[in-house]
Amino acid sequence: MFFEGSEKKAEILVNASKISLIDDIADDFWTNLVQCCNAQILSSIRNDDCKAFLLSESSLFVWHDRLLILTCGNTRLVHSVEFFIQQIGMDKIQQVIYQRKNEYFAHAQPSSFGDDIKLLGQYVQGKAYRFGELDSHHNYIFHQDNSFQADSLDKTYEFLAYQISQQASEKLTTVGLKAEEIRQFLQLDKLIGDFMLDDFVFDPFGYSVNAIKGKDYLTIHVTPQANSSYVSIESNINLTELTADFLTILAPKSFDLLSFNDFDFVNLTDEFIPKDYVSKSRVSERLSNNYLVCFANYILPQQGFSEAKAFDIAGENHAL
Fold first, then answer.
1. 258 vs 260: CA distance, rounded Å
2. How far apart are CA 246 and CA 240, in angstroms?
């Protein structure tokens, strides 16, 4: 069974003196926005600073001055971005950032990154970059090119793990596995024990959790199937410092780290990434909106030979 866990991501910052996305926007608006990309809201949690919506495909977070939405599978997130722009108006929007990582099966997606930014270009002037090598792990980032300048304290981190260990995959595909068991396996009490959590176990496999504390957030999405395993973790708390913990739990064959405005990225990765993993690529770029974006891809060198993958040629052909 295959599911495209790789996510598309959009962050939109608004002028808080003109609109509050928490106080001035009803939840029906977010329901409609999510439906525009063919996803649904499953549940939500909130505090005074943040609303967190768990989606059928990933997550939506809303603060007074911004929103962050991630969607996986075959969603077309750009339609939700277009809906927001059309409903709210560019006069209230300060910055649009749109991001896509490489997919396992890009040919099965309803659009490409190029298609998406062509649509966004009807509303905003922007610039686009690729972080990482084209024939390996990479992220595409489009951002609005205007007078907006990001605060140096506005930080975001992404940890993306591929081909998790057989033990982790078997655990996370156990029939009847409960959310509490997954939380224990991921050691969430140790890592974010003081956060409010909202999680969901998908049928037959898959897991998502949103966590918030004040303005801080963390979200985890797990696609555990052995033939396409993928785990994404995103937060505005420093994930680089937690990387060793996640690597011990998941033991992936490769992973990516991506940060916005971590000015100590090189030193932190040198300090916290186990020496077993080798850096395959590192990219850094300061965008015109004043975000410093750093990307690094790590691999666990293979020490021996593995067996070739045999296919059922009479069965599904998505991987052929």
1. 7
2. 10
Residue 223 lies in a domain: yes
Provide mean pLDDT across the span 137-144: 95
Ramachandran region, residue 109 (left: φ > 0; alpha: ψ -120 to 50; beta: rest): beta
Residue 304 falls inside a structural domain: no
In the block, which residue shows the tokens 């686009």?
128
The string of DSSP letters for 169-197 reads HHHHT-TT--HHHHHHHTTHHHHHTTSEE
What are the CA-CA distances from residue 175 to residues 4, 9, 202, 206, 296 (Å)? Answer: 21, 30, 11, 11, 35
CA 312 vs. chain centroid, Å, equals 32
Whether the per-residue pLDDT at 320 is higher than 60: the answer is no
CA angle 247/60/236 to nearest 5° reads: 45
State how many domains the chain has: 1
Report whether pLDDT(316) > 70. no
User: Angle 243-250/265-272 helices, nearest 10 degrees?
Assistant: 40
103: CATH? 3.60.90.10
Euclidean distance between CA atoms 225 and 2, whole angstroms: 7
3 falls within a domain: no
Tally Cβ neighbours within 10 Å of residue 56.
17
Query: pLDDT by residue (tens digit) across 252-299?
Result: 999 999 999 999 999 999 999 999 999 999 999 999 999 999 999 999
- Which 3-state string (H, E, C) describes 69-117? EEECCCCCCHHHHHHHHHHHCHHHEEEEEEEEECCCCHHHCCCCHHHHH
Q: Which domain holds residue 31?
A: 8-299
Report pLDDT digits (tens) over 36-68. Answer: 999 999 999 999 999 999 999 889 999 999 999
Per-residue model confidence (pLDDT) at position 81: 98
* Cβ(98)–Cβ(9) below 8 Å: yes
Q: Does 309 map to a domain? A: no
Paired with 96 in beta bridges are 12
Q: What pTM does this model have?
A: 0.94
